Hints:
The chain has 189 residues and is of the alpha+beta class. It has seven helices and three strands; from the N terminus they run H-H-E-H-H-H-E-E-H-H.
Amino acid sequence: MLAIIATAMIKTLTSYLFGSYLKAHYGSVEIDGAPSWYGQEPKEAVCVSTYNKGGLDKLEITKKESKIKLRKKVNHILQIVIYKNFKNLTPDEDAFLNSIYKDKKLPLFVDANMKFQNIKVDDDKHMVFIRSCLDKEALINYEKNRVKELKKDVTYYKEDKAFDELDDKPRPQSGTADKFFNQLNKEQP
């Protein structure tokens, strides 16, 4: 069942990212004095736009805020996909899906793969504008690999659980083996 959920998760994420969902949900933003690219998202990427009042001194702060904003957006996309497409789950299935969007490696993935597509420091308006993007294909491939890892983890978990159950249950014993071990125990001082 978890394999079906994992496959459905990837298909849903792909259709979500390449469909009109992102535009309908996030739309575009226009800020007076912002560059034309601000708030726009190309078809091939997931992007966030960030701005701060200030000059060149605010550039690094705005970059950091942009990274955080992109991490949150990617995580939010995964939460929406799960919420909209998976209902009435068993506790194991629910735990599996929770592990998908609670990914400790996601910030590292976003930081390693994001690009500051546009940066503008407007000295006249005393504003800094940044658009940072993450390639949709890279995100889908990352999630496919994560799902593979999670499926392996679930398999190992089930295997360990099965062995634990075997260790806790009394095993049927053959009469010959019982007699042999009973004799050995009697003969020892």
